[in-house]
């Protein structure tokens, strides 16, 4: 009887292993077969994902989608952008409507363990803040007692706001709206006294206001909000592709590889790290089951991490955010490429 149970258990394990093997690589194979990457992005936040006057999606998140498409398909234009609200985003990924979610999504423990999803790597470090009208006279969070605060439901921002106000014996009334643009409209119209969300989003929203100088982002940050791409949990191969594509952009900045010099560096560089990164040595592409030029294609498409940040969020953009925590570790930031060897 014991032997029968043992045989049955081994057979069950075999079924599980076989099922896992059958699923492995499903997303990567699917993207290659259809020739297009379905990438979930925000419905519209300047600096992250917002169509320009010609309908072309612009921003950090959309360019990261293009980087993944370039790495997998060799062409950054092979992307279908799927705009999603905070409430929609995880369901769209779980159901297979999108291949990857790159939409200002905070990497947190419960999301990583409870949703059947996997959080890949941080591409931006942020923190929760608040924006108020300048004429309110409020200069710190203590002055927000009793305010109506616009928040988006289903976000970490909703949770950390409630936690902070409760902990500090402050009162507030939430006004919940899915679209951040609706929150921006409500603040300008006086329907709420403040917006609570991550500081980069506050700066992005303010840059589009009719009178941005009439609004102030308070200096305090009440949470850690590392953003990163999210994939389904059942596909380790695809997880690796997305994680290492983001890492390659950071590595490129560390090594001084740019969109402009990548081609020459690929031909002439003697540095082994550069040769591996750009595919002159094919070992990294082989590890991901991609073309040897996967990272080279991504860098040529969107630039290294510093180029990407400065073009979408940096000091010379309307959003005007300094690098800060998103600078390289060698300059006092948190951006640190894992060794690619």
Biggest pleated sheet:
5 strands, mixed
Percent of residues in helices comes to 40-55%
Residue fraction in strands: 15-25%
Give me the count of strands: 14
The helix-and-strand class reads alpha/beta
Helix segment count?
14
How are strands sequenced across the largest beta sheet? 10-9-11-8-12
What would you note in describing this structure?
The protein has 341 residues and is α/β, with parallel strands linked by helices. It has 14 helices and 14 strands. The strands form five sheets. The protein has a five-stranded mixed beta sheet with strand order 10-9-11-8-12, with helices on both faces. Strands 4-1-5 form a three-stranded parallel beta sheet. Helix 3 packs antiparallel against helix 13 and helix 9 packs across helix 13. It starts with a helix and ends in a 29-residue tail after the last helix. Belongs to the bacterial solute-binding protein 3 family. Pfam families: SBP_bac_3 (PF00497). This is Amino acid ABC transporter substrate-binding protein.
């Amino acid at each position: 009887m014991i032997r029968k149970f043992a045989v049955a258990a081994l057979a069950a394990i075999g079924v599980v292993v076989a099922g896992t093997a059958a699923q492995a690589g499903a997303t990567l194979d699917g993207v290659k077969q259809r020739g297009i990457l379905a990438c979930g992005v925000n419905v519209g936040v300047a600096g992250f994902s917002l169509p320009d006057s010609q309908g072309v999606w612009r921003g950090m998140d959309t360019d990261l989608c293009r980087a993944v498409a370039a790495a997998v398909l060799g062409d950054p234009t092979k992307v279908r952008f799927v705009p999603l609200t905070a409430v929609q985003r995880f369901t769209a990924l779980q159901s297979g409507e999108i291949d990857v979610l790159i939409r200002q999504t905070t990497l947190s423990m419960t999301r990583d363990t409870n949703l059947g999803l996997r959080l890949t790597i941080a591409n931006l470090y942020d923190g929760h803040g608040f924006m108020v009208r300048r004429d309110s006279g409020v200069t710190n969070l203590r002055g927000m007692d009793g305010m109506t605060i616009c928040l988006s439901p289903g976000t970490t921002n909703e949770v950390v706001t409630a936690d902070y106000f409760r902990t500090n014996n402050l009162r507030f009334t939430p006004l919940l709206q899915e679209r951040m643009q609706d929150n921006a409209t409500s603040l300008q119209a006086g329907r709420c006294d403040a917006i609570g969300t991550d500081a980069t989003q506050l700066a992005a929203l303010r840059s589009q206001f009719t009178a941005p100088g009439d609004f102030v982002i308070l200096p305090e940050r009440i949470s850690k909000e590392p953003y990163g791409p999210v994939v389904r949990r059942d596909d380790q191969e695809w997880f690796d592709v997305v994680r290492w594509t983001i890492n390659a952009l950071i590595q490129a900045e560390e090594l001084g590889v740019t969109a402009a010099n990548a081609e020459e560096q690929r031909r002439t560089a003697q540095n082994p790290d550069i040769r591996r990164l750009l595919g002159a040595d094919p070992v990294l592409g082989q590890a991901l089951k991609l073309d040897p030029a996967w990272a080279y294609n991504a860098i040529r498409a969107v630039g290294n991490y510093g180029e990407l940040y400065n073009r979408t969020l940096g000091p010379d953009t309307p959003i005007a955010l300094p690098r800060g925590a998103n600078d390289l570790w060698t300059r006092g930031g948190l951006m640190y490429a894992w060794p690619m060897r």
